[in-house]
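Hi R.,

As promised on Friday, here is the backbone we talked about, encoded as structure tokens. Could you run it through your design pipeline when you get a chance and send me back a sequence?
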């Protein structure tokens, strides 16, 4: 059971981090694309925020809780477990307050032809995307190092 939970946990983390890297790489590449392509990309970011990241976050959370419950050594009070919970909370808050609404605003700016607003929203999304990525990488380090175990 532990290995199954761990594999699913790692898949969730890979989806989360991989999504962030994809957005960071592809986002700037669309800046000079035609409006139709930029609109598609903004809508894709919104779909990722609504579906992909939610699935990844739920998978990470459920499997993480499962691993703690089935393990006699790891406890919810261990530092790395707490960091994991905080990361999921940060990811959820950013998704609900920044990435979801931001992708909708980005699409609206593109549709209205407001390039100044489009650029500002892209910058904000990129900044918070980098913050989210740092949180995920920091959390991975805490998990691998089992910070505060015991």
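Update: got your reply. Pasting your designed sequence below so it's all in one thread:
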């Amino acid at each position: 059971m532990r290995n199954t939970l761990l594999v699913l946990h790692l898949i969730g983390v890979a989806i989360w981090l991989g999504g962030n890297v994809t957005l960071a790489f592809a986002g700037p590449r669309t800046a000079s694309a035609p409006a139709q392509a930029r609109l598609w990309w903004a809508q894709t970011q919104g779909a990722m925020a609504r579906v992909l990241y939610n699935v990844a976050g739920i998978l990470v959370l459920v499997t993480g809780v499962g691993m703690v419950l089935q393990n006699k050594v790891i406890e919810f009070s261990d530092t790395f477990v707490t960091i994991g919970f905080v990361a999921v909370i940060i990811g959820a808050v950013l998704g609900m307050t920044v990435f979801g609404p931001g992708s909708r605003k980005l699409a609206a700016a593109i549709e209205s032809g407001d390039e100044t607003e489009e650029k500002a929203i892209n910058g904000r999304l990129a900044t918070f995307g980098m913050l989210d990525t740092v949180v995920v990488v920091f959390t991975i380090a805490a998990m691998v190092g089992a910070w505060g175990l015991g």
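One thing I noticed while checking it: The radius of gyration is 17 Å.

Thanks again,
M.
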